[in-house]
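INFO batch 0412 | record 1 of 1 | parsing
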Amino acid sequence: MHLAILIGHFPPTAFGGAELQAEGWARRLAASHQVTVVTRCDANMPAGHAARDGFDVVRLPVSRVPGWRTLADLRAIEAAVAELTPRADLLLCFQTFVSGLAGTRAGAKLGIPAVVWVRGEAEYRLGDSRFTRWLSPRVWSAAAGVLVQSEANRVDLLAELERHATRRLSRVRERLSVVGNGLEMPAPTPIPATESVLSVGRLIADKGMDVVIAACARARRPLTLAGEGPERAALRALADRLGGDVRFAGHVGRDELSRLYREATVVVLAARRGEGLPNVLLEGMAHSRPVVATPCAGTRDLLTDEMNGLVVPAGDAVALASALERLAAEPELAARLAVSARATAECFAWEKLLPRLERELERWSRA
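INFO prediction complete | emitting tokens
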């Protein structure tokens, strides 16, 4: 099968969860299929064609005119898909907008089934945005298949359709499947004795980094934040005001990120919303670290409180600080949670998920 993966940005210059998952899936699917990634060019990756890791990457130029950019993207993606040789058998579109919209449009014109992989809550919170409420149900119902990352995402997406787009509900339900995020499983290492906290993600309000800073200051725990974003200066000011011991690591590569996981005694995800199936939470669990997280979307499928992690309310720095203090005071609990977290993460190893995704893609390629 010739599989075309459509995504707005693609590594090595993009390091978000969707981008890293797309790269991982492209590499593994290329072992049995022809894979072409269609994406935008970036500052350090000019437009053009390249081959890497057994698959091809087509990078498209990006318009600098804001009002024209989306239309230009749609046309460029359609043209790139039409030029693929041999013809693509399936389009796998990461995120509803722009890739899902482009893929379903191009697929309809070219007679190629398109699958849309929803990557986070923002894509299906239909009550939050008129644009999302208008666009997302139309894209999903035009797709041959729709993927989400967790059962919680599936339930929530269908509930949103029932509230806001009832006539699309049955059509989307019959083509909706769950495939989780793939994981590299590192060798387990013992929990260090440093009582250090790690949180990984974009420095934006939805990630709750301000809550992590406040909680660590309250619990007097050193904190490392790995990630960049528009709130960096405000978060730095908050850390200074609270007297927190916070290191801003910025964007880090995969090897450096693995080192940060190994050095941490606990991994925290304090997201308020916006998650699909959080890569950073899975990675912390894969490194055999106790995790503390908020019950957003896919987290509810990963964590059972007191069993393989601790769950705290979103936005509650006091509850998060208490959880950190408890893990420090009860090393037996921390060790037990770490072992259970690792066992949960092992279910998401690439080799376990790959056959499931391939079955779904083969089914949809015949749609």
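INFO post-check: The chain has a mean pLDDT of 95.
INFO record closed
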